[in-house]
Each structure stands twice: as structure tokens, then as C-alpha cells.
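Researcher: I'd like a structural prediction for the single chain below. Treat it as a standalone chain; there are no partners to consider.
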Amino acid sequence: METIQISDQEFTQFQRLIYQIAGISLSAAKKALVCGRLGKRLSHHRLRSYGEYFNLLSDDRHRNELQTAVDLLTTNETYFFREPKHFDFLRQQIKPGKTFRVWSAACSSGEEPYSIAMVLSDLLGDSPWEVVASDISTRVLEKARNGHYPLDRTSGIAREHLSRYCLKGVGSQQGTLLVEKTLRNRVNFMQLNLSKSLPALGEFDLIFLRNVMIYFDLETKRQVVKRMLPLLKSGGHFLIGHSESLNGVVDSLQAVAPAIYRKP
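Model: Treating it as a single chain, here is the predicted structure.
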């Protein structure tokens, strides 16, 4: 079947759509990505152009398809224990006592919150702790809740964590790994759109917002961080990706280490 090309005008429609919904700025360089991710949906609906697909998404009767398109355009790559120094820092912050709470915002397919949960379980065991994990995509959240990954996605997990928290697939599940149920149950997954007003989630000791802001323009970054900061405890820490910066985004946080900020 021949590949359907997207015109500049059609691409602009999708740029506006994903910006309105998720605050994500798609540069012109992302044209191939949009085609690659949405092309199968055109085949599925037997449509002849991206304009026809956009019209379908604009129809209220196709809300589920709109969510599918958002899922496809917002999914980001992630892996276990990405940027390991952040997890070393997390270990240093953990103190038994009151419930220790961490929010993994834009958690994608779950590798980040499960990495956080392994560290908390190591140090706090049955003491009270909680990981909240959120993403805009229902598709990746479903994958995250299942906690089932190909083995080649799990190379960042230390051997002791593999033996304590993971089950290696056998038979038809060979080549895969399942995060053990007790740990899965400690992570609270929910759908959240960071570019809209946030529900009352309570206060967190640490917030991870990593490798997400690269997709936002400056004003969206400011608005997202402004919404999130009231949910960070005084003295709590805000972690971003190493390729990101809060320069010009917020001035109320103190930089304490690369990509780690403290709320006074």
C-alpha cells in the first residue's frame, strides 16, 4: 500500500491540535514522525488523506479516536533508572517517618515510577510511602499498570532489584520481565494532562518532570511548572531532564545539583 503524504496545511492542523490538547509544540522537523505514527490510523479508517483524518478527529462521535491520536503523538522513550544520579539523590532524601511521597509526572510506560518504587521499597520497606505516576496517554498507562516489559528494556535494573522485584518470563513469556505484583500495587497510575488544571493530589517530597519540557514552548513550561509547584512540599525537590533547564521558567527554586532544584 502506498504511503500517504501529509501536506503542510494538514501538518499545521495537527500541530495546532496537539498544542491545544497537550501544550506540545511540534516543529516542522516532526512531519515524518506524525506520518509514521498516524499513518496506520488512516489505513484503519480507510481514509485517503490526513485532512480526512483530522475531520474525523474533530467529530464528537470519535472521541476515542482522538485519544488514540493523542496517545500516538505524545509517547516518549523511557527506560529503567534513566539518569542514575537522580536515583542516588533520591536515596539520600528518603527519611522514615511521615509518608514519603514521589510524583512521576509524564511517566510514559512506567519504567521511571517502578525505578522510584524499587528505591523506596529498598529503604523504607513497609513504612508508609507512595508513588503517584501520571501521563496524558491512556495507552502507555495501561502498559505501565501491567508492568510487563521486553528483557532488552530492563538493562538498567541492578541484579539485586531484578531478583527482588521482577519475575523472568518462561515458556510463551520468554524474553520478557514482569514487575512483581506487590511493587506494582504501590504505584498509583492516573491519567493527567499537565497543560490543564491539576486535581488535588496532596503534597510531594519529590517531583520528577524529566524529558518532557523539551516538547513545550517557554510559556507552556512556565504554566506547567506554576501548576505543579504548589504540590511540592517546602524543602522538597523538583527534578528535570539533564538536557532541560528552568532558566526563564521559574525563579523561586534553588539549583542544588545538575537538573535538581529545591523549593525553599
